Amino acid sequence: MASVNRVTIIGNMGKDPDMRFLPSGEAVATFSIATTETWKDKQGGKQERTDWHRVEFIGRTAEVCGEYLKKGAPVYIEGRIQYDKWTDKDGVEKTMTKIRGDRMQMLGGKSDGERSEPKQQARAKTNDNPDDIPW
Question: Which ranges of 56-132 would DSSP assign to H, the alpha helix?
């Protein structure tokens, strides 16, 4: 039986992306996105809950994220959930859940991140065909 690991989120950037580069030279962008849900409780009062999601892009899309995404900006992300496990220097086992992104779309207008360009979209390269990337 086939399986699916797919995540779609729309939220706001928690901070500017952290950029680093792999030994191969590929860019890696890591950042957090906040998603907030609101509802009314039984007494009619407004309730709110914010969840934070760690997101990571690799390659050309990571470069676009580093250049254009800014704290507070609304963004659409598609990717898959990935669990990383390692042992720290003290021998303690650690785990981290993140979204390994493969598609990103900036949302909002010029005031959201002070961009003058039109909305940007980036998709991780999935094969050797450069036409797969929509820019």
Answer: 60-68
Distance CA 133, CA 118 (A): 17
Quote the pLDDT of residue 108.
80
What's the CA gap between 39 and 8, in Å, rounded? 21
Contact 120, 64 (CB under 8 A): yes
Angstrom distance (rounded) from CA 121 to CA 104: 6
Using DSSP's 3-state secondary structure scheme, residue 32 falls into strand
Distance of CA 46 to the CA centre of its chain: 28
Question: Considering only CA atoms, which of 70, 83, 85, 88 is closest in space to residue 31?
Answer: 70
The token duo for 97 is 């859940």
The predicted-structure confidence for 67-100, as pLDDT tens digits, reads as follows 999 999 999 999 999 999 999 999 999 999 999 9
